[in-house]
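Dig into what follows:

_____
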Amino acid sequence: MQPRVTAVLKTLIAVMLLLLLAAQVWMIPGLAAATADRFPEFANLEIPGIIAAVVFLICVEVVLICIWRLLSLVRTERIFSSKAFIYVDVIIATMIAASLIIIISNVVILLAEAGSPSILLVSVLGVVVGIALALLVVVLRGLLRKALELEQDMSEVV
């Protein structure tokens, strides 16, 4: 991969991390407080909602950091190493955790009778997308393993 492309990707990841951090610090608590004021019957969900949203965004940040590290391995031409699998495994686990956070949050919302069909639909979509992305990364992990095996075979031949 070209060094410029890697640098641009890392810059975009840094911007995304800063925006996610800003959302965690300012946007989510403010939105939760405004929602609690507007719907006082659901004010008891304010703190659990903030926690769930912040933990979900932490999952996104972890994935972005792992992608950053994988880009560093690509740039130094060490992507075909066992170290890459650690980051890929963390990405898979984090995507599954994020999907579980969505499921748990949706159950809490439904039990509190605070949801609507649109919230349920968006939640189901989030879970489906999260699991699909995790499965896609599992397939890519298999491709990485095969490429590592092929590189090792080629180095033995040469």
User: Anything to note?
Assistant: The two ends are 24 Å apart (CA to CA). The chain has a mean pLDDT of 93. The chain is about 85% helix and 0% strand.
